Each structure stands twice: as C-alpha cells, then as structure tokens.
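Re: Re: ligand-bound prediction request (bumping)

Still looking for help on this. To restate: I need the protein modeled with dinuclear copper ion bound, output as structure tokens. Inputs repeated here so nobody has to scroll up.
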Amino acid sequence: MPSLSRNRLILGAALLGAVGIGYACAGNRTSSLAGGAGNAQRTYVAPGEYDELYAFLSGGFSGQVGVYGIPSGRLLKVIPVFSQNAENGWGYSEETKPMLETSYGFIPWDDLHHTALSQTNGEDDGRWLFVNGNNTPRVARVDLTTFETSEILEIPNAAGNHASPFVTENTEYIVSSTRFSIPVPNRDVPIAEYKAQFRGQISFITANQPGKMDIAFQLIVPGFNYDLARAGKGPSAGWMFFSSYNTEQANTLLEVNASQNDKDYIAAVNYRAAEACVRQGKGRRAQVDYRHNHMDEFTRTAISERKTSVLQITPADCPGVMYFLPTPKSPHGADVDPTGEYIVAGGKLASVIPVHSATKMLAAIEAKEFEGELEGIPVLKYNATLAGEVKEPGLGPLHTEFDGQGYAYTSMFLSSEIVKWKLGTWEVVDRQPTYYSVGHLMIPGGGTRKPYGRYALAMNKITKDRYLPTGPELAHSAQLYDISGERMELLLDFPTHGEPHYANAIEASKVRENQKRFYALAENRHARVIRAERESGIERRGNVVHVRMASIRSHFTPDNIEGVQVGDTVLFHVTNLEQDWDVPHGFAILGAQNAELLIMPGETRTLRWVPLKVGVYPFYCTDFCSALHQEMQGYVRVSARGSNVALSATTNNRAPQRAGGN
Ligand code: K7E
Ligand code: CUA
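Reply:
Sorry for the wait, this slipped through. Here it is.
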C-alpha cells in the first residue's frame, strides 16, 4: 500500500473524529499494481480496432469536453464549449465568437462540471450531449453528429450553475439550479442581509429542439446552495430531485457555518405540477437579461440573441410543486436508481448513505406527513420517505451510479474508494481503492433506465504518485474498473484533459454511424461563401478588406494579395472546397493576433487580422492535408497607410476569371 493512501486514511479518520463518526478502516486495499498483464489485455484495443464506448468527460476548469475511447482510455478529441480554443479557432473566428457572448459581455472561459446525454424513454440515445457552465451560468448542447457545440443558453438569476444540466427521460428538459444564492433580481444589498434578500433558483430548460433551448419556467426557492440533480422515472417520473446544503443560509465561513444542521434537504420538484401551475396563469414574467446563442446550420455562423424576460413561479403560489426531504448532512449527489424507486444522497459529512423511496415519498405527501414548512414548501418527515441507510459505507460519500443488476456504487472522497452496495438490503458488498480522492464516478448509462454496466470510471481529484511528475501541476487521472464480476477490478489508469467532474459513456454504435463527414458546399449559405476558385476575390470598404479565399489540396486562391495597408482590418473568409471526409484545411498568418482557423470541408470560417507594420506576411495551411501540404501557402503585402499600391488578389499571377462583386 503506498504510504500516501495510508496518510489519506489517517486524514480521513481525523476528519471523522471531527464529525463524530466511528469508522473501521478498510482492510482490503489491494496493491496498486492491479491485475498486471491480464488486465492490460482487457483494455487493449488492437491497432485498427475501435473502442467499445465513447466516453465524454467534462474538462472542469478547462471549460471543454474530452472524448475518450473506453476501455482503452485513448483521448479522441477535445470539444471546445465554453473556452476559446486556439487549436481550431473556436471563440476566435468571426463565425464562432457569438457563441461566447453573455449578458456579462464576451466570456472566453468557464468551468464545466457535468455532462448529460440526451435520452429517449430513459435511455441514452446518442443525439446530443448537454453540459453546464458553472461560473457564468450557462448550459450548452453538443451535437454528436459533428462533435461541435451547437447551442449555448445563459441562465439569469443564477450564480454558479452547478446542479445542471441533468436531463429528463425524453429530453423534455434539462435543469439548472444555482449554487450561490443571490439577490433576485441581483441588486446592491448588504451581504449580511443574506437571509432576507438572497434567493435560490431552479430552472427547467426545454431541450429537445435544437436551436430553440429556452427557460420554460424558473422556480424561486429558499436561499440555500443547490448542488446536484437527477430526474425521476418509473414511480418518480415527472419529478426532479435536487440536493441542497447551507440550509443554515450562512453567508460567511461556510465550512463551519453551513455544517451546523444535522440535516439539509433534497428538494423534490414535480415538474408536471409546475407546468400545470404555469398553465393556470400563476407565473409572472420577470425582467432579466440573458443570451441565447446558436450555430446556424446553413451559414455555420453563430447568432447571439438577447432575451429580456423569464417566467417565474414560486412554490407558495403552486402547492404540490416542491417538497423538502430532510437528508443528512450537506448532501452532494442526489442519484436515482434505474427503476426510479430510490433516490440516493451523498452526504459529504454523513456517516451513512441515506436512500429515499419514491413510493414512500408519494404516500407521505398524500398523508401529509410533514414536520414543517419553509416558504410554502412542505418538509416531509425523514422516516416517512426513508427506504434505508447504508451503514459505515466509508468516508465522504459523494456520487452514486448503478449497474442495473441491483447494485449501487458510491464514490468516497475522503476514504478514496468506490463502495459497492446492494439496493434494498443496503449492505456493502465490495470496496476498492481509488488513487486518490475520487469525485464523481461513472458507469456507462449509470443514470438511465438501462445501465450498460460492465465498467465504472473513477475521476480522481488527486494524482500524486501515479504518473511521471510534470512540475507543480500533475496530470489529473481517471481509473477504469471492471464491475462485471462480484468484485470490482482496477484495469487502467489514464490521464485526462482538464479536471473531469462528471462524465457519460455510450455504446459506440449509438453514435458512430451518425457522423457527419463534411458540410455540403451546395448548402453553404455563409454570406461570403465561394463555391469555386473563380468566385474568390478581394474588396475594400473603407479600412476593412474582405478576402474571399478558397482552400483545396494543395493551394489557396488567391495566394498573392497586395494593396493592404497598415491598420486595415483584414477579414479572411476561407472556404474549404473539399467534399470528402477528414480533409480540413488550416489557415494561419504571420503576426495573427488571435488564432488559426481550422476549416472543415464545405465550411467557411473567417479570421480577423490587423497588420501593424509594413512588410510581406506569409500565410499557410496548418493541417497536413496532402503530400504538397508544405506548398500550401501565400503572401500578403502590407504597405504604409495611404500608399497607392492597388488592391489585388491573384493566383499564378492571374486575378480570378470572374471577379463577381469584388
Ligand atoms: Cu462532485 Cu461539480 Cu459534480 Cu466535482 S461535482 S466531483
Ligand atoms: Cu491544406 Cu495543408
């Protein structure tokens, strides 16, 4: 056993002492050299073979999503979502910049925690991946035919969009709930007036129509911290469960002041009842300011629209919409099992894993087994909804997933392990160490009606001694376990991009066949598309120079440009004329102040460039596209301001044959 994990156990025990929990240290830690060669074979994907699953791992503070093959752990792609990505011009090209517009202006970064695959009948369907932006509250849709972010919606009255974007059974909604309660609407008030002035907020966002995401309604709720969520199904269909902490409503030193209450709450929201309440006209339109951005399918240019109102309802006005389920102690995860009967809470500081029963909850609501009421929200009695408690599960339970075989798997942050336990009997049947301090774990389909099972992926917060060190910042790490047997077996460690929180994985067959291979040039409606080299050209409008450029193996048209002057804004509108899979062309120019472009076949992308000095500036293709890729280049001559060098754009010393509209 590495000494580090022993230290963590001691640390865990110390923390346990602090919260008054007895715990017998796990005695069955296995060697970190799990399995060896036998396990290597089980994750080995031979050259030319495909992985069994796609896994989408949130990038955490990278603001992006990493796509990995499972079981190999090979990184296939990084999908830029909330952060600019100079590698392909995301958030730098003129077409993509509007995607990052918010009511706070252009925001080039976010902190992405959770992924949610779209579902049909409670199963992952492979159409879209939804993700949350935590810092500047937003949700995004990634289209899994293009692996590109196609839509971003900002959430007003939110701060720290953490309980997001969990999806309902048929992708009717994704949700967003605020981690930080704030004044609603946000205004200038003393922070000490937290209890009186700060509110929480839970939004239901329509999700099943691409390009049309919007907030269906916003529930204004007590000023707690809302943390995670899961949709119900089966007996809990039509409900969404949110964990909350800081029910103390502390506004300073939360590590102490938000850990006072014995129990916090899981908020159960009946969204069918909320819809009915809205239909009865009990909502009111509030003035807000937020943005909805989406990528137009045909121009491949993002549009950012401003929205100015949102429909709000309150639990007091809509009886039956929301109930609180007391839950020990600062719960983190709120996870629903595949049948929809059990709601499992991960009480970070709790000595047990409490499990609520959906049928008991419904009966308790019927029988009005309330212990009180908060702002019109009935608080159910703990014992009235409790199905059972997993005793002595380990330290610091966070998140639970399910294998569809009657078992649950909970990540234990403090005791660095995954604990497997049986639904219904609540007995712990296995525990395996993680290296180290696991946050989320993920079972493919583990939050759906039909888990794929087979694997569990632990996403660890601390790596320490697992890889070659890389300076002060070490690689973050995921660990793959085989869960098909009675005991979990560690198969593989692999480093990750960013710091994954949650992830999803899906059978490759549900995504693989739907891939878009290129954009049809004939359907390209970009304002400055060219569909043939002869349509290329150059045009000056004041200080702005538009270059319509074609790229095709292995040259640009035009490739010699003159008449540009210092201080001009040059817009290179580059259309990739290829109509074939896997032939992007790049575009980069000496002194570019932003990024390169990476242009997919059939697509037009625009790079803005302001030359600051006279000279001749080469540009070139950055994507190795053919044997003559290195010949794929050109020059821009930049003259002094006011120079009389004529504007020209040529290839092989000839201007385009038809200079239409130049
Ligand atoms: Cu537990 Cu943001 Cu889902 Cu991190 S969260 S681990
Ligand atoms: Cu085009 Cu290299």
